[in-house]
Structure formats: C-alpha cells, structure tokens
Design goal:
Length: about 120
C-alpha cells in the first residue's frame, strides 16, 4: 500500500478516536489491538478499506503515522480528535519521557528492551 492509497479511506471523528485508541493500545498490548480492530470491522464500525489502512498504520514509524492520519481526516471532528491526541501525546512526552516508543516492535530493539 502506498502513501497515496492510504488517503482513499478516510475516518470521521468517532472512527478517528477508535484508530487513535488502537494505536495507543498497540504499544502495550499488540494482540488486543488487533483483536479490537477485528471487532470494529466485524461490527462495521470500520470498512474493509479502513481496516486495511489501520493495519498499514500498525507497521509504520511514528513520524509517518502522524502524517497519514492527518491525510485521513474526513471532517473537522476527525481533525479535532487528532489534534487533541497530539496535545495529549506532547504532554505525556514532557511529563514522562521514558514512555516506550513504537520502534520497540522491531525484533532488534525488542531484544534490547527485554535485556
């Protein structure tokens, strides 16, 4: 999936909140994040194309995720949800700079973190 293909499915405000929650959960409980993604698709909260986009996000570095999410906002509510999350993330980084990064998903860094 290219960056341009990701922009095709967009997320409304409620969907964007789900996506943000899934990305946060992925850092700490990847199996649960995938389980919840499956549930959202099964319940038709997310379309198949949106689900594929979220799965793509799961594999991207943080700097790409932010850019891709901004491009996927369908409306002002989605942009507001994303903006609120970025403010929350900025506060979390300032208050607790040791928060695990999404980079920890790679096998090389996972071994370092486990040691």
């Amino acid at each position: 999936m290219t960056h341009d293909e990701f922009a095709t499915p967009t997320f409304d405000g409620a969907q964007m909140r789900h996506v943000i929650e899934l990305l946060d959960l992925l850092d700490f409980a990847p199996h649960e994040a995938r389980r919840q993604l499956d549930r959202l698709a099964r319940e038709r909260v997310l379309t198949a194309a949106q689900r594929a986009s979220v799965e793509h996000l799961f594999t991207r570095p943080l700097h790409e995720v932010d850019r891709l999410l901004r491009a996927a906002c369908a409306d002002d509510e989605a942009r507001d949800a994303l903006r609120e999350e970025r403010v929350h993330e900025a506060r979390g980084i300032y208050i607790a700079p040791a928060r695990p990064a999404r980079v920890a998903r790679s096998s090389a860094s996972a071994g370092v973190l486990a040691a």
